UniProtKB/TrEMBL annotation:
SUPFAM superfamilies: FAD-linked reductases, C-terminal domain (SSF54373), Nucleotide-binding domain (SSF51971). The keyword RNA-binding does not apply. Keywords: FAD, Flavoprotein, Oxidoreductase. Belongs to the DAMOX/DASOX family. InterPro entries: DAO, FAD-dep_OxRdtase. Its cofactor is FAD. This is FAD dependent oxidoreductase domain-containing protein. Residues 99-318 form the FAD dependent oxidoreductase domain. One of its GO terms (biological process) is D-amino acid catabolic process.
Length: 328
């Protein structure tokens, strides 16, 4: 007998959780429901606007976050060999003095990953569909109880997985809204490319840094900013100019016409503005203490892609350990 499961949210965490749930147990009949799906443009739908890369934010003492992030590191290592995935990999080594940025004294490259979102998200959607996951658009859900009634089969869901990002704590029936906030990010999608991921910190604006992620198909993402509780969907043109100035100053390779066919200026395709869904106590991945059919998976902040497979692993464990006798 199949077990109806509804995943709320079609961002990278919701889709990854749905895929891994379906792969983990053939009994699970998984439906993803969301107001926004891949291809939609809305600042509150975060995943399409991400950079995105793997770079764990976990400190040496943050064991839980380390567990979350390491899963994607392993998974991306495998997926990088699939040309359809849009995942780019670079091996590590200690930089020679000639390779250092101006004003730096040491540096290391590591085996990191950049995820080309326009390739990876549809790739993830396709993997879900091929695995038997149903993805459907629904009207905005206001009460988490209502999510039990939107399974594609028409049956009442035995499990609801709350992966709705910045909306996850706003549902009636989810008592966590005071801990959640957004952090506004702004990045440039450019045609110029560069040979490696580079990050430079320590600028006069404490909520800004310079980072460049080359994409597998060419071009790069240049950022960025981290403005807490700023919901403005409009490009900050002064910030765009600061990003451009820093990029040309610290990363001259971007405008070196002898490398990669770059132009002598940064050729901007578009400016992306997105809201990262942060949570004060870090990610919430747990069974709801009051609703035994509800499992939460949100609060990834700026680490949605790098945490996606770790979120999914823990969600799968929570569902499967309760499958035989789900408490409704």
């Amino acid at each position: 007998m199949s077990v109806p499961v509804v995943v709320v949210g079609a961002g990278v965490i919701g889709l990854t959780a749905a895929l891994k749930l379906k792969q983990s147990n053939n009994l699970l009949d998984v439906t993803v429901v969301a107001t926004f799906l891949f291809g939609d443009n809305d600042i509150s739908y975060t995943s399409p606007y991400a950079g995105a890369n793997w770079q764990s934010f976990a400190s040496p003492n943050e064991k839980f976050l380390q567990e979350i992030d390491i899963e994607a590191y392993r998974e991306f290592g495998n997926l990088a060999d699939d040309p359809r995935s849009g995942i780019w990999r670079k091996k590590k080594h200690t930089l020679e003095s000639a390779e250092l940025l101006p004003g730096t004294v040491c540096g290391r490259e590591f085996d990191g990953f950049v995820i080309s979102v326009p390739a990876y998200l549809p790739y993830l959607v396709q993997r879900c569909l091929e695995s038997g996951v149903i993805i459907k658009r629904v009207l905005k859900i206001t009460n988490i109880e209502h999510a039990r009634n939107v399974h594609n089969s028409g049956k009442k869901a035995q499990f609801v997985i709350n992966c709705a990002g910045m909306f996850a704590s706003k549902f009636a029936g989810v008592d966590d809204s005071s801990k959640n906030y957004v952090v506004r990010g702004q990045v440039l999608v450019v045609r110029n490319t560069i040979s490696k991921i580079q990050i430079v910190c320590g600028f006069e604006h404490p909520d800004e840094e310079l980072y460049v992620f080359p994409r597998k198909e060419g071009g790069a993402i240049i950022g960025g900013s981290f403005y807490k509780n700023n919901h403005d969907p409009v490009e900050d043109k002064a910030l765009t100019q600061r990003i451009l100035d820093r990029a040309t100053t610290y990363l001259p390779e971007l405008i070196d016409e002898k490398m990669h066919g770059n132009r002598s200026y940064i050729d901007v395709v578009k400016v992306n503005v997105g809201l990262r869904p942060f949570r004060e106590d870090g990610p919430r991945i747990e069974k709801d203490p009051k609703k035994k059919w509800l499992i939460h998976g949100y609060g990834a902040g700026g680490g949605g892609y790098q945490g996606s497979y770790g979120f999914a692993k823990k969600i799968v464990e929570l569902v499967n350990e309760n499958i035989s006798t789900p408490r409704l």
